[in-house]
Design a protein that fits this description.
The protein contains twelve helices and 14 strands. With 364 residues, the chain is an alpha/beta fold. Helix 1 packs antiparallel against helix 9 and helix 5 packs parallel to helix 6. The relative contact order is 0.18.
Length: 364
C-alpha cells in the first residue's frame, strides 16, 4: 500500500450521478441528460469565439476586467464585486477552500445539488444534510441545524436535480436567522429560467448583505456549457479572498468573447426562455397524464418519479438509452425511482414522450 496520505475527507467523495456506459447501447442521438441548452448559443457568441482563434497562443491576462463590467451592466451590479471562474463549480470550490477546514460544518438540503458535500469533504469539513419538503429546501430545517461550527450554508435556488425553488421571502428569512459569520451561498445556475413571481434574484440580497454570495453561469440559458464560464457576486472582502486562490489564467479568451456577446443578445435569451417554458409545461402535462409524478420545475429540466416494480425508473432509463435517448439518474437512494429529463428541442420532446408512452404500455 502506498505511504502517500491525502486529506482524510477525500476518501468520502463519491460519484453522485449514475451513467449508462454499456457497449450494448446505440450511439446517443438525443442528449437530455446534462441540462445543456438544446438551443445552443446565439450566433454572435459563436462568431466572437471564432474571432479569437488567431490569439490561441496567448493567455487572457485578466478576464474579469473584460467580463465583469458586461455582467454588471446587464444586472445593475458593482463590477468590483464580481469574480469570474472556470464555471461556477470552480467558484464554489474556491469558496469552500476559503471558509471550510477541519472542525467546521457546511449545511445543505439533503436532496439538493448532490455534489455539494464534496466541497466540504475536500477541505476535511463536515457536510450537514438536513431534511427537505418534497425535494424543496426547508428553511426551518437549515436554521435548526446551525451550530457554533457552522461556516457555510449552501442552497441551489432553483434546485438541481428536482427543479424546485423557494421564494425570495423564504431566502431572506433564512438569511435573517443565520449568524453574521456564516456565509450563505445561493447557487442560482438556473435563475434565468424561472417564471415564478415570488422568486428573487440572488444578487439582490447579496447587494445588501456582506455574508451572502450568489453564483451564476453561462452554461445554461446562454448555451455556453462547453465554454466553462461562471461568475460570482459578493462583498469585496469575499471577492478578494476568492480571487487570491484562483487560477492564474482561469478562463479562455474564446470563452470570454462568447460570454460577452451572449449577454448582449436579448432576442436569443428571450427565445430560449419562452421556448423552454412552453416545452417544459407541455412535457409536464403529458407526463402527468401518463400517471407519473412530476416535480414542479423552474429550470430547463423535469424530474419524473416512477412507481417501483418491473417498469421503474431504472428500467425506463435503460429503455430510453436503447433508443438512443440519454437521461439522468442519480446515486442517492432518494432518487431511486426518478429520472431527470433536460428540456430539448420540440422534436426531441415529442420523441421522448412517444418512447416513454411505449415503455409504460409495456411495448418493445
Amino acid at each position: 500500500m502506498s505511504e502517500l496520505r491525502p486529506k482524510s475527507g477525500i476518501h468520502h467523495i463519491k460519484a453522485h450521478m449514475l451513467t449508462n456506459d454499456s457497449s450494448d447501447y446505440p450511439p446517443i442521438r438525443i442528449a437530455l441528460n446534462s441540462n445543456e441548452s438544446a438551443f445552443g448559443p446565439c450566433q454572435s457568441a459563436i462568431e466572437a469565439a471564432r474571432a479569437t482563434a488567431s490569439n490561441l497562443a496567448r493567455y487572457l491576462e485578466n478576464p474579469t476586467s473584460l467580463l465583469a463590467p458586461a455582467i454588471a451592466k446587464r444586472h445593475g451590479l458593482d463590477p468590483n464585486r464580481i469574480a469570474i471562474g472556470n464555471g461556477s463549480d470552480d467558484l464554489l470550490a474556491r469558496l469552500a477552500r476559503v471558509y471550510l477546514d477541519a472542525g467546521t460544518e457546511m449545511i445543505r438540503s439533503c436532496n439538493g445539488y448532490l455534489k455539494t458535500p464534496n466541497y466540504a469533504f475536500a477541505n476535511n469539513a463536515m457536510p450537514i444534510s438536513v431534511s427537505d419538503k418534497a425535494f424543496t429546501t426547508s428553511v426551518d430545517a437549515i436554521l435548526d441545524a446551525v451550530t457554533k461550527n457552522t461556516r457555510m450554508v449552501y442552497i441551489a435556488n432553483p434546485e438541481n436535480p428536482a427543479g424546485t425553488y423557494i421564494s425570495g421571502n423564504e431566502v431572506r428569512r433564512l438569511h435573517r436567522g443565520l449568524p453574521r459569520h456564516v456565509v450563505l451561498i445561493l447557487d442560482c445556475a438556473y435563475a434565468e429560467y424561472v417564471d415564478a413571481k415570488d422568486y428573487e434574484a440572488g444578487y439582490i440580497l447579496a447587494q445588501e448583505a456582506e455574508n451572502v454570495v450568489v453564483t451564476q453561469t453561462f452554461s445554461k440559458i446562454y448555451g455556453l456549457a462547453g465554454a466553462r464560464v461562471g461568475w460570482m457576486f459578493a462583498s469585496q472582502e469575499i471577492i478578494d479572498m476568492v480571487n487570491r486562490i484562483g487560477l492564474t489564467f482561469p478562463v479562455a479568451s474564446s470563452s470570454v468573447a462568447a460570454a460577452m456577446a451572449a449577454l448582449e443578445d436579448e432576442t436569443h435569451i428571450n427565445y430560449v426562455f419562452q421556448t423552454n417554458l412552453r416545452l417544459r409545461n407541455a412535457f409536464t402535462k403529458t407526463m402527468t397524464n401518463f400517471g407519473l409524478k412530476v416535480y414542479p420545475s423552474q429550470t430547463n429540466f423535469v424530474l419524473l418519479e416512477f412507481n417501483p416494480g418491473e417498469f421503474n425508473a431504472a428500467a425506463c432509463a435503460d429503455y430510453l438509452s436503447r433508443q438512443g435517448i440519454a437521461t439522468r439518474r442519480f446515486a442517492s437512494p432518494a432518487y431511486e425511482n426518478c429520472i431527470r429529463v433536460t428540456i430539448g428541442m420540440e422534436s426531441d420532446m415529442k420523441r421522448i414522450e412517444t418512447r416513454i408512452a411505449s415503455f409504460l404500455n409495456h411495448n418493445s
